[in-house]
Amino acid sequence: MTWQPSTPSPAQREPRPVAASLGRVSERLGLGRPTTLGAVFARWEELVGPDVAAHATPRTLRDGVLTVVVDHPAWASSLRLLAADVLGRVSEAGGEPVGELVVRVAGERPRRGR
Predict the structure, then answer these.
(1) Residue 101 belongs to domain with CATH number
(2) pLDDT tens across 39-98, in order?
């Protein structure tokens, strides 16, 4: 038996907006909606302020968990104290609830279980 490619239906062959495909792909990967991802990553400084943004960078947003990397342990402590405010701003900006903030210090290895 030889491999035969599947033949897409006429509807599948029609061009469609990239946003439609991104939504499906990000959902399959457990990522937030593209609008939420865009709001967090493109507007990060606006959401957290220039002082925090200079030391903290969003890395991932998956299954409602936002992971941020900071450049110093003191900024990790500060960001953890601001977690409720940051999560509220991110959720509001993206229109999708983000329920947890994980803060990592650059260069540290993640703990087991996370």
Answers:
(1) 3.30.300
(2) 788 899 999 999 999 999 999 888 888 999 999 999 999 999 999 999 999 888 877 788
61 touches 98 (CB < 8 A)? yes
Q: For residues 41 and 47, give the distance between their C-alpha atoms in angstroms, rounded to a whole number.
A: 10
Crossing angle, helix 34-42 and helix 18-28, to 10 degrees? 90
Tell whether 55 is covered by a domain: yes
Structure tokens that stand for 79 in this block: 């960001």
pLDDT digits (tens, 9 = 90+) for 15-33: 777 666 666 666 666 666 6
Residue 4 lies in a domain: no
β strands within 1-114, DSSP E? 56-62, 65-70, 100-105
Residue with tokens 């993640």, as numbered in its chain: 110
pLDDT digits (tens, 9 = 90+) for 31-51: 666 667 777 888 999 999 999
Both tokens of 78, joined, read 């500060």
